[in-house]
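Support request, please re-run this one:
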Amino acid sequence: MNLPCLQEVAVRKLLWATSFDFWIEFRASIATLRPFAVKPTHILAETSTPEGAPLALVEHDGEFYLQSAGVPLQSTFAHNGAAELGRLAAQPFRGARQPRLLLAGLGLGYTLAALREALPQKRAVFQVAEPIPDLPGWHRQHLTTIHPGQLEDPRLIVHREGLPGALRKAGEGFQVMIIDAEGSLPQAGVTDRKGVPHSSFLHRAHSSLREGGLLAISCQANPHSFERKLRQAGFDVAHELVPTSQKGKQKQRSTIWLARKGAYQKRRSSTGAPKKTSDS
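Re-run finished. Output below.
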């Protein structure tokens, strides 16, 4: 065997031995690793909406989620959008003696908590139209650590029905009406399948508000067409983009529409100045 052949054989043996040693060391290191622990997901409660859609309260890794058919609607992880909806809706009425508000649904309670914090007046009235009978019980049984004592607030009235029914019973004269369509399932007579409020409901909301009252809506809608629907219902319109969550690297944003019955006054908030839309 000539010299080049011997060198080639030596190199092959060296590579084989090196790779074999590496494989032995790799197997040994793998054996010392602990198996990856997947944190369990717990379904705490389940029910159905009046329209027949499934709804579940789920806990995972210390966070709570409202979900329907596996699709998250609201969570304690990403609740900033719901809280900002409440803060922005309450902002113009901090000086009111007896603000009267109507909120569409409890959700996980962040919008209501923001309203209560922003409006501490003893004579304030917070009415919630909750069409899912089990949801208040879920709050008392599973969510007491999130908003302690919230449902015991004497200023709070919970209607066990949807927004149209609550409006029929409560009548008119609200200063604020709040709808988190982005974080809830479609509701008959209020929103379509995509969660966009119907034109007929917007007109009904306009007639139910006092002069200078505010309709605050969080929803994913085409900006131009939805602004047009709000204006056709008689509202002066502004909107604001807010982070859905303050956690995580990628910041998703929610659009909050502020529709005023009467001239909308510009103001500055903690999240910056809202975008005042033009009449053109």
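Confidence is low (pLDDT under 50) at residues 1-20, 264-273, 275-280. The chain has seven helices and twelve strands.
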